[in-house]
Amino acid sequence: MNLVQTGTTLFTISGGPRNGQTFTLPLYTRPAGTPAVALTQIQSSVSSEYNALVFQANRRFTSGLQFQASYTFARATDTNQNSSIFPVASATYDPFDRSYDAGIGNNDVRHKVVVSAVYSPTWYKGSKNSFYNYVVNGWTISPIVAYYSGKPFDSFVGNLNGSNGNARFPLDPRNAYRLPAVFNTDLRLSKRFNFTERYNLELIAEGFNIFNRTNVFQETNALYTRSGNTLTYSAAFGTPSLDDSFNYRERQIQFAARFHF
Fold this sequence. Notes:
There is one protein chain. The chain is an all-beta fold. It has a domain at about 50-90 and about 105-155 and about 175-260. Helix content is about 0%, strand content about 45%. The longest helix is centred in the middle third of the chain and has 6 residues, at about 130-135. The radius of gyration is 28 Å and the shape is elongated. The model has no long low-confidence stretch (mean pLDDT about 90).
């Protein structure tokens, strides 16, 4: 907080969609006689808002079919909330103008669809001891399909106003860009062999991310590089830099056998 405005700086953009555009920012410095280190003020003053509309459809297990489906349409906004064990230094862009900090929340997921089902039909209606019953019946298929809108992210250029605050590009709103959507399908297939009413054997095959889709969780967010008062567009901006995660990895398949008694 030990900063004063000592003037303004005129920046010129070179390349990209804003080629030739200019803009002015205040320039902050520490006044003479103040400590050489920053004086940080920690306060709980963030405002956040979440609105959502949820649709759900459920079917109880009837005639061999059960499913659950939900769709969420949501919007989360805040004034740059952050969660950390320790205080986040210089979280604001401009300590004297908090309007830069208002925008889409970091965890805003605009659309979310999740559908799961269990389908276990009885195709053969004849004797339970027949060959056809062993072959045709006892199958169960259980898919889970999830779709999420990509999370938002900021464009960065480095701090331009001398406050050593947030390094995002000030002409873009907070979280102005979106990662690609996350789409994942898991599938379980099983076959049960009943020997008696008490004993049966179940063979199970499970696949995770069965379409082997690459889900992008981070993109290059350096929008410009600074040289003096010129900002040069980075062609690498928006290219994938981190794919998959702990939860959405490459396709994996596992097999199991379960004996019930």
